[in-house]
Design a protein that fits this description.
By secondary structure, the chain is mostly helical. The chain is built from twelve helices and no strands. Helix 7 packs antiparallel against helix 8.
Length: 312
Amino acid sequence: MNVLATPPPPHHFSNPRLSPSRSMSFYTPTASVSRKRKVEDDEPQAEDGMSFSPSISPVPHTRPLPAYRHAKRPRSGPVGRALALPRLLETLDADSLRAVLQSLCTRHPEIGTEVEHTAPRPSVPSALNVLKNYESALQASFPFGGDSSSDYAYNRVRESLMALLDALADFTPHFLPPNETQASQSLTFLDGATDIIHRLPDWSSFQNSLHKHNAYEEISGAWVLAIREAAKRAGGMQLQYGGWDQKLAKHNQQANGKLQDAVNELSVNIGWMGGQPQAQQHGSRGNDLNSVRQELLAGTYGKNLPVHVGPW
């Protein structure tokens, strides 16, 4: 019987898809050891027993942060604020500064006392300048046109007139003895104050004219007091050689005789000191010159003069 021979199944090692067979090399421990030593030879050797292990490598030093750090403030823009006192005072004019100071002195009397002791003493020019400012305000208050001596004009300027008279009444005692010890200062102020009174307006009404009349009466009494005090100092030299007799005589003439008491007081004091008023001296000298002139014109000059005989 013919039996067909079946081929045996293929062995899995003979599968061509498997990786090809490699030649097996025999393992030799000597080669492995030599190779390992070569690698170890390439590595750096530790010196002084120190290890290069990463676990014990030195850590870089870091500076500790401060507990509090100032935050940078943002820049602020302009902010409005009031002026300092020195700058504020620079902006005030004389009238405003005077009003502020007067208000402070009224509310705090102790400040007023301090100002009186600290402020410099007023001089004659400064006082007369204040009076002239009041006089200018009086002249500026007159109405334009019309009769300047009428009651209407008086009512228009009455406030300015009273302000001038009040200032005159306040300044005059300041320059009189015993507050003023220098006779020349007293006489100089009275000279300027009397000129201001001469320029006061004349009114058609008698009642309105009393202001000027009373001012002349008060300034005449001030002249008398100043003349008496001047006669006691330095032998009255200020009265004898200051030309005050002429100045006072002129004032009395402009005042229509309202200063006659002052003129009489001056004449008494100068006569008691053995002097003669300069006005009278100039008057007698003028009379002598007139008589000489008349004699020259008449051709009789020198007729009664004695004739000298002999050598000149």
